[in-house]
Predict the 3D structure of the following.
Amino acid sequence: MAEFDVIIIGGGPGGYVCAIRCAQLGLKTAVVEGRDSLGGTCLNVGCIPSKALLNATHHLHEVHENFEKMGLMGAKPKVDWAKMQDYKQGVIDGNTKGIEFLFKKNKVTWLKGWGSIPEAGKVKVGDDVHSAKNIVIATGSEPSSLPNVTVDEQVIVTSTGALTLPKVPKSMVVIGAGVIGLEMGSVYARLGTQVTVVEYLDAITPGMDAEVAKTFQKILTKQGLKFILGAAVQGAEAGKSGAKVSYKLRKDDSEHVLEAEVVLVATGRKPFTQGLGLEALGTEMLPRGQIKTDDHFQTNIKGLYAIGDAIVGPMLAHKAEDEGMAMAEILAGKHGHVNYGVIPGVVYTTPEVASVGATEEQLKDQGRAYKVGKFSFMGNGRAKAVFQADGFVKILADKETDRILGAHIIGPMAGDLIHEVCVAMEFGASAQDLALTCHAHPTYSEAVREAALACGDGAIHA
Ligand code: NAI
């Protein structure tokens, strides 16, 4: 039917950002999206709704934990779950409609329906077949399954079902102490649910700097989450009034069973590429199900590209967005590029946890000489004023050159603070460059500067 310069399959953060940039660069662009709203997993059933629930329950936690300490006395609010769900839906709608507006503003065509690629250069949506000089697959990911665990999205749920439970459960078992498990576990723990997190490894949040992970676990434990580590879940079975989860402790192979009203399976995600017709096209795939691409996101088929969760790399919305922008530039004949060494990761709990670059463990493995500048939020006036002085900032710098190699923050607004270090790293800055930058007082970001100072002659308030 219609002919486009670019058709992008998938309207999530990778796809919609790519589309807007393609259109801005003068390419005739369409996005195929089968959901009723744009924004993909992130806006509809991921990042955005979970942040709404984290925000609401954070305030609830504040009322219960800290209001009286500040002289704010009186009745505690009751949770109206239906109203909280309405608030969450309003946040989703506001954001997804915003993308629709941006599509109109930039003249991006939304082809409604699920797309497939019958042959190179063609995209089929419903009964229509469209031509495109370039096709970009941005179909994202879906929750990965666990053997002997059947998800019904009622009693045994993924992150999608966990966002829309009919009521706040009395108890919940979370399988997997990754980002989803801890964010959603925090939401329900703050609402009064007894949350038990069962994790295969001996630490929470795999890949996170070990010192941060340890502090994080301590803080979450204080908030009421229970952790069973070194435990491999063997299966989960839904019954009439809840579910049973069986697990084996790795240290002695002993078998145990937990019961809970709801079970959240949060054991990772996998690329979502079914139904595209990739096999028939002869698209090369990687062993873990990702689409294989070259450095310019091109698959083994000319004119067919892939970005975001469907290819290798961290499954993060902002990584997909960066790839979307770089992809558009490449298609417009420019030099799109993603700096994979400076992609931050954030866990939106209270406190927030954020990191960028190498962890101490990675630097040790690489045999690299490094120095550590650490500063506790105990020495930060703003953090103390908001009862969030438990965490710290840690900056890792090259021992010889002082170049910043990584940063790890657990504390208030860590997800925003980390970007000061990201920018510094992007510019190849040294810890001293950060330390010499004047930081307003009193701000949380002074803790970042103090950690940078600690890489040199020492922090002031330590
Ligand atoms: P994850 O990969 O972060 O964590 C999964 C955890 O499950 C791991 O710790 C793993 O050891 C554990 N596990 C696996 N099998 C198990 C078993 N049989 N028994 C016990 N434990 C088991 O996956 P998660 O949390 O599901 O997140 C999926 C993706 O979504 C990740 O790539 C994450 O980065 C992304 N995401 C990012 C967010 C953010 O940036 N704030 C928020 C939510 C998701």
The chain has 14 helices and 22 strands. The pocket of NAI is lined by residues 146, 175-181, 183, 198-201, 206, 232-233, 266-269, 315-316, 345-348 (CB under 6 Å). The CA atoms of residues 280 and 305 lie 16 Å apart. The mean pLDDT is 97.
